[in-house]
């Protein structure tokens, strides 16, 4: 049966993002819950006002304070109010504060951004010499389409290369002074991919590679689709030549049906920013799981 991947009314996640499974909203209880009316004592207000870091929704912050035994809460269900009948309200000022907190929590210092851009230039130049396409993949693909580059909270870069081009490409990288690469097995799939990094980058405790690094994923063109070795399918992406874009200052490729591909990977990427907890700088959970409602234009770029 043919599937219309452009049908946004029946958005089909062909490749559900593993970090979004079970994480529909980053609420403290793990799911969206409701409350609407607060009666807060002066002492409680003082405790809330003492919190100077935007970490989560206000109601979740109250729950966190309760869990830490910093506040007492009394809750009651009443018959005259149904939370499900209330339309969520967009609080513009708070959204601006959340956006500021997201950007300020970025791993990307000027030096780290300079290093990753140099690494990307080396990789792009090598691909050009070998007449090889390097395709933006995953969060980097999303970052280019929606933000024009690396997202402030996404501290790795994902690039795709056609499998039969890999050996010649790695051989060329091996001749470039200061550049290192190594094979890594993706835990979820058991499929190999490659990390590429600077010899003199920042040490990541417990790992042989340094930060920043680029993940290089293998794909093949199967029929009309670009299919990555780990099972990620880019429907209808092999029917036309890739388009060239500049990503962090260097030329890379993206499929010509990028919007449809992102629709099959990220369930609400045009309506919401999601900050995952995983930090590639430390290879463990470090980030606060914030989310923010957004709008994008017809090309998917954030307004």
Question: Any overview of this molecule?
Answer:
The chain has two domains: 18-89, no CATH class; 107-293, Beta Polymerase, domain 2 (2-Layer Sandwich). It has helices spanning 42-49, 58-67, 92-104, 110-129, 138-147, 166-174, 258-263, and strands spanning 134-136, 157-162, 179-185, 192-203, 210-222, 225-228, 233-234, 243-247, 250-254, 272-274, 278-279, 284-285, 291-293. The chain has 303 residues and is of the alpha+beta class. The strands form four sheets. Strands 1, 2, 3, 4, 5, 6 and 7 form a seven-stranded mixed sheet that branches. It has a two-stranded antiparallel sheet with strand order 8-9. It has seven helices and 13 strands. It is elongated. Strand 3 (179-185) and strand 4 form a beta hairpin. The two termini are 36 Å apart. The longest helix has 20 residues, at 110-129.
Top keywords for this entry?
seven-stranded mixed beta sheet; Beta Polymerase, domain 2; two-stranded antiparallel ribbon; alpha+beta; disordered N terminus; 303 residues; 7 helices; 2 domains; 13 strands
The helix-strand sequence is: HHHHEHEHEEEEEEEHEEEE
Query: Termini distance?
Result: 36 Å
Characterize the biggest β-sheet: 7 strands, mixed
Q: Please, how many helices? A: 7
The helix-and-strand class reads: alpha+beta
Runs in which pLDDT lies below 50 for 5 or more consecutive residues are: 1-11
Total number of beta strands: 13
Number of domains: 2
CATH architecture descriptor text of the largest domain = 2-Layer Sandwich
Tell me the strand percentage band.
15-25%
Can you give the helix content as a percent range?
25-40%
Please state the CA-atom Rg, rounded to the nearest Å: 22 Å
Question: The CATH topology of the largest domain is what?
Answer: Beta Polymerase, domain 2
Shape: elongated
Q: Report mean pLDDT, rounded to a whole number.
A: 86
CATH class of the largest domain: Alpha Beta
Oligomer: single chain
């Amino acid at each position: 049966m043919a599937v219309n991947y452009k049908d946004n009314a029946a958005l089909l996640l062909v490749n559900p993002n593993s970090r979004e499974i079970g994480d529909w909203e980053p609420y403290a209880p793990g799911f969206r819950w409701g409350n609407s009316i607060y009666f807060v004592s002066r002492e409680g207000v003082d405790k809330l006002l003492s919190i100077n870091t935007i970490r989560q929704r206000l109601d979740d912050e109250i729950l966190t304070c309760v869990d830490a035994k910093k506040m007492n809460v009394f809750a009651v269900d009443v018959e005259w109010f149904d939370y499900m009948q209330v339309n969520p309200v967009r609080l513009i000022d708070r959204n601006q504060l959340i956006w500021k907190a997201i950007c300020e929590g970025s791993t990307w210092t000027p030096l780290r951004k300079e290093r990753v851009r140099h690494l990307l230039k080396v990789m792009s130049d090598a691909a050009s010499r070998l007449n090889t396409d390097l395709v933006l993949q995953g969060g980097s693909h999303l970052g280019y389409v929606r933000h024009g580059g690396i997202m402030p909270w996404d501290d790795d870069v994902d690039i795709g290369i056609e499998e039969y081009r890999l050996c010649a490409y790695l051989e060329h990288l091996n001749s470039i002074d200061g550049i290192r690469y190594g094979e890594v097995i993706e835990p979820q799939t058991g499929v190999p991919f490659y990390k590429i990094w600077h010899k003199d980058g920042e040490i990541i405790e417990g790992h042989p590679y340094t930060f920043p690094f680029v993940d290089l994923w293998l794909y093949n063109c199967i029929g009309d689709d670009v299919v990555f070795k780990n099972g990620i399918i880019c429907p209808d992406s092999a029917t036309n030549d890739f388009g060239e874009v500049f990503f962090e200052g260097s030329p890379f490729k993206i499929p010509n049906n990028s919007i449809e591909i992102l629709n099959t990977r990220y369930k609400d990427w045009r309506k919401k920013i999601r900050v995952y907890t995983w930090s590639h700088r430390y290879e463990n959970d470090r980030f606060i799981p914030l989310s923010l409602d957004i709008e994008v234009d017809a090309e998917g770029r954030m307004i």
